[in-house]
Amino acid sequence: MTPNIRLTGPTPLAPSVQEAASGQMISHRSQNFRNILRDVVTRLKPLFGTAEPPMPFTTSGTGGLEAAVVNTLEPGQRVLAVKVGYFGDRFAEIAQTFGCRVVEWALPWGEGAEPSDLRKKIRESAPLDAVLLTHNETSTGVLNPLEGLAEVIRAESDALILVDGVSSVGAVPIEMDRWGIDVLVTASQKALMAPPGLALVAAGKRAMTNAQKNRIPRYFFDFSRMRAAVDEGTTTYTPALSSIFGLQAALALIEKEGLPAVYSRHQRLSKACRDGLSGLGLQPFAKKGFESPSVTSMLVPTGFSASAVRQRLQDQHATFIAQGRAQWKDSLLRFGHMGWVSQKEIQDLIDAVKAVLSC
Ligand SMILES: *Cc1c(COP(=O)(O)O)cnc(C)c1O
């Protein structure tokens, strides 16, 4: 049975990506590598909506979030963390770890942040040096209205806007430069449909200026060093070459399909997934209007255990999904549909869930 990988990350690899990622090693100081990296960086820019070159750090998404914090913030600075789930908690924890004074705005899981509420929070917690946002909260299947949130932050303050876009970049339109986002972080293994191993981090002018004077110690994650290397067509240290090869092939697929088509496919499949599963008696967890195009979260019908459903999908249907986190572990199921996904796989998923619930 071909596995139906509906995890929320890592996402499945297209055949051309698998092939590229299994390529032979080359020197990361060779002209061949410079050509590949320049191509990757150029092709990433429209996905971030920026003219700045996204920097490839060999790490996971969390490493990218840490890089955002250690380059732009100072110990003792006031940071507002907008938390709508597990990954929002993590971003806040990273800022705390490096000595920032974190003001937390925690919403109930399943809800998204409304720009009008954020305006109040910013006024209450002023002055602020930065605001941490999760664009797409993978633990709850919630998409925050990033454009509106960024607009409010820009209008109300000079705070830097640091965004976790790990499960949104490549699935949802983002205009980093136009919306005034200072740092946008993603990772190779989510909607970019490449192997794990890379955090891609774009930093705007204000963030790069901060990076030059900021006092949090860092070496590997230094933006200035990495930016200088990327401008030369290489990376500071040995990169995850296989992931870069895979990413290049994945970006070629995205370019071939066309970004507008990629974004509308995510919308379409997300709706098909939610509607199909609702028809089986599962209940959408994300508040209406905040449903994520990349991850669908559904409450299992009463009397069912999410762990048992997930295990049976795996054992009987080779269908791999994720469960809820924390207190939602046994009541919530999460279905990934970002990256390399077809309508048929979503239909197969719904059919498999139906079979599991009826036996
Ligand atoms: C997956 C994910 C992360 C963490 O990524 P890792 O690569 O596992 O470190 C962070 N934020 C969001 C929104 C994610 O979906």
Structure description:
This protein has 359 residues and is an alpha/beta fold. Helices cover 44% and strands 16% of the residues. It has 13 helices and 15 strands. The chain has a 7-stranded mixed β-sheet with strand order 2-10-9-8-5-3-4, sandwiched between helices. α7 (176-179) links the parallel β8 (160-164) and β9 (183-187). α5 (115-125) runs parallel beside α6 (146-156). It is globular and about 60 Å long. Pyridoxal-5'-phosphate binds at residues 9, 60-62, 87, 134, 136, 138, 164, 166-167, 187, 190.
Identify the notable features of this structure and list them briefly.
7-stranded mixed sheet; alpha/beta; 44% helix; 4-stranded antiparallel sheet; binds pyridoxal-5'-phosphate; 359 residues
Brief account:
This protein is α/β, with parallel strands linked by helices and 359 residues long. The chain has helices at residues 15-21, 31-48, 61-72, 86-97, 115-125, 146-156, 176-179, 205-213, 223-231, 241-257, 259-278, 306-317, 343-358; strands at residues 4-5, 55-58, 78-83, 101-106, 130-134, 136-137, 142-143, 160-164, 183-187, 198-203, 283-284, 295-299, 319-320, 322-323, 332-336. Bound molecules: pyridoxal-5'-phosphate.
What order do the helices and strands come in, and which of them pair?
Layout: E1 4-5, H1 15-21, H2 31-48, E2 55-58, H3 61-72, E3 78-83, H4 86-97, E4 101-106, H5 115-125, E5 130-134, E6 136-137, E7 142-143, H6 146-156, E8 160-164, H7 176-179, E9 183-187, E10 198-203, H8 205-213, H9 223-231, H10 241-257, H11 259-278, E11 283-284, E12 295-299, H12 306-317, E13 319-320, E14 322-323, E15 332-336, H13 343-358
Parallel strand pairs: 1-13, 3-4, 3-5, 5-8, 8-9
Antiparallel strand pairs: 2-10, 6-7, 9-10, 11-12, 12-15, 14-15
Helix pairs in contact: 1-10, 2-10, 3-4, 5-6, 11-13, 12-13
This protein binds pyridoxal-5'-phosphate.
The site of pyridoxal-5'-phosphate (PLP) has 13 residues, from α3.
